[in-house]
Each structure stands twice: as structure tokens, then as C-alpha cells.
Amino acid sequence: MSSNIRHVLGISGGKDSAALAIYLRSKYPQLDIEYYFCDTGKELEETYTLISNLENYLGKKIKVERAAADSPENSFDHFVQVYGGYLPSSSARWCTKKLKLEPFEKFVGNDPVVSYVGIRGDEDREGYISRKSNIQSIFPFRRNIWSEDVIQKVLHVDSLSKLVKAYEKQDLTEKQARILAAVATPLSRSFNQTHKLNLLLDAGIAAFNKAAFEVLQETLYPLAKTSEFALLDNEDTLVRDDIFRILRDSGVGVPAYYEKIEFEVDGQKGEYSRSRSGCFFCFFQQKIEWVWLYEQHPDLFARAMEYERQGYTWMEESLVELAKPERVRQIKLDAIKKASKKTASSSIYLLDIIDEAEEEGCASCFI
Ligand code: SF4
């Protein structure tokens, strides 16, 4: 494969990026992928175990990037000092920017890069898209592997004739040939971008990918710098169950914090676990995950508490309040109630409240 571009994959410590690395290694061994991990200095121990297992599987080192690497403090503590003790939150997320995105962009530099992102086919989110024009995100687990900006470009009225020509070059089936009429129809209020995209993907994912790739050849996107791209034929869509299967079948294993642990309160049984990777004190955690940390990793909970001072807390209630026995009891009861409601209304998957929460937050930290 021509290689004027770099291929990179960020390992977050979460299940989806790990499964993506395994999937791409086994399905597209010809891709020379560079793996990296932006270490905040506050990761769970299980994250380092996963990274070590992955390195063994991939036969390749995962490059560790650290923000403020010259500081005597670890990355997070360095920036907490810089911000005067001001803790990050979902509305002031300096941590993602400083500890994940900036080290990633430094790692990439100005090279043209394809960045593979493990957002699954059963998720409805876009994930982080770099504003740097030399970085192009690709989503191999989704039916639509392209980022939103690429789709806008490809389906834009200015690209219409190029798209039609790109389809015409292909050896189309009768059904796909009929789709050409739709391809040539400009977007409108009654025929919007999502509608058109779905129609084209329904008619043939590989055909759409090849046409989109052709349109991109006349742009400044990194993929314009290569004449071929292995994933154009990819028609796979991978969902949550596939991710767990890939991790288990490969021998890499599922990070231990995903494993559900049973608890009992007032004679009722419930389960808790952690839903995602990232810092042990991440403010995206649900209350029941904080209880999990308090009971399963009391040392880490105590360390999270140490950051809460001078009015700065990880959420609206302090960890001192959350750890009170009556509050722990109530959080567990709430979790049991929410899980039973979810179970009563769920379809084929027994998704619980924790699984449901995993789509919140940041692709750089949790995928
Ligand atoms: S895991 Fe949470 S606390 Fe850590 S960098 Fe990401 S968003 Fe911030």
C-alpha cells in the first residue's frame, strides 16, 4: 500500500479502541498503524494491564505520550496546579484538551494522518474530530466509516458531478445503477443529507466508499495523498457484543473494571462496575460508579477526595457527602430501581444504567 500518510490509532484503555486495534491488525495486516496512548497519570491499573496485553497481541509498542512531560509532577497534577486547583468538569473540560488532545496533536505534528476511531455501529455519536486539516478520522466499526465533514463535502451540491462520475466508473449492479438517479438529486428540505447518505449506503457500502474516496482525491484531505485505501471494501458493522467477543477471542481480555460485581442493600440485589476507562476520578462517572470506586478501590477514592478542597468538588455533591452510609445506601437503591426499569423495557440486550451512560463523555478518554 502506498504510504504518503501515517495511520494512527489512539488506545484509551477502553474496550472499543482495544478491540479496534485487534480488528484492524487481523483484518488489514498491511496497514502500518502507529499506536499511542495519552497517559494522564491518573489511569486505572487495569488500563496498563490492557495496554501490556495489547502490545503482546500486536507485536508492537504502544507509544506513551504525556502532557507536560518535563514537569516533576505527573500530567494531571501539573495542570491542576496551573489551573490553581480548579478541577475539570463536563462544562470546563480542560483535562481532555490538555492531557489527551494536545499530546495527540503533538504526536501527529503536521504529517498527513488517518486516525482510526472505535465508535461502534450501535452508537449515535460523532466523537472527536480534530480541527487540524492534516488529521482525518475514520470509523471502521460503523456502516458509515467517514466523518461528518467528509460526508458534507461528498454530498455537497458542488461535488454532485464528481460523485456521479465516480459511481459511473464502477461496475454497478442494476439496483445500484438506479441509485444513480438519487446520487444526482441535490439535497433539499425533503431529501436531506442523512436521507441521501442512508439511501446510498443501503444500495452498497463499498460502492459509496469508493465514490467518496474518488471525490476526496481532489481535496486537501490526507486520503487524497494515496491512491488506495484498504477500508473501502469494508462492509462490517460492529456492535457492543462484537467488541467483547473480539477482546475475549484474541486473548487480550476485557478490562477487569467492566466486570459486574454484585451488591446487596435492604435485602435487594444489584450490580455495579465501571463503564469506562480514563482517570479514576473522572467527573463523567455516575453516582453508582463512585460507590463502586469507594467500595472496590477505597485507596483511589481517598485520593480523589484529596483533590476536593477550597470549594472545588468533582460534582455538585462532595465525595465526603457521597461516602456517608445513608447516601451510599440510597445511591444503590436508586441504581437497582433504574436497572429494573431498564430491564423491564429492554429489547434483546439487557443494557443497564451503566452501559447506557458510556456514550457520554469524550472519545479521546473512553473509546
Ligand atoms: S478521563 Fe475524565 S477526568 Fe480524565 S481526562 Fe478524560 S474527561 Fe478528564
What would you say this structure looks like, in words?
The protein is of the alpha/beta class. The chain folds into 3 domains: 6-146 and 233-250, Rossmann fold (3-Layer(aba) Sandwich); 147-232, no CATH class; 258-366, no CATH class. Helices cover 45% and strands 9% of the residues. The chain is built from 16 helices and 7 strands. The protein has helices at residues 15-27, 45-58, 75-82, 94-108, 148-155, 160-168, 174-183, 193-203, 205-216, 240-250, 287-296, 298-306, 319-322, 325-345, 353-357, 363-366, and strands spanning 6-10, 33-38, 62-65, 113-116, 135-138, 261-265, 268-272. The protein has a 5-stranded parallel β-sheet with strand order 3-2-1-4-5. Helix 6 packs across helix 9 (205-216). The radius of gyration is 23 Å and the shape is globular. Bound molecules: iron/sulfur cluster. Iron/sulfur cluster is lined by residues 40, 88, 93, 95-96, 99-100, 278-279, 282, 284, 362, 365. This is Phosphoadenosine phosphosulfate reductase family protein. Residues 7-125 form the Phosphoadenosine phosphosulphate reductase domain.
Walk me through the topology.
Blueprint: E1 6-10, H1 15-27, E2 33-38, H2 45-58, E3 62-65, H3 75-82, H4 94-108, E4 113-116, E5 135-138, H5 148-155, H6 160-168, H7 174-183, H8 193-203, H9 205-216, H10 240-250, E6 261-265, E7 268-272, H11 287-296, H12 298-306, H13 319-322, H14 325-345, H15 353-357, H16 363-366
Helix pairs in contact: 1-2, 1-10, 6-9, 7-8, 8-9, 11-12
Bound molecules: iron/sulfur cluster.
Iron/sulfur cluster binds at residues 40, 88, 93, 95-96, 99-100, 278-279, 282, 284, 362, 365.
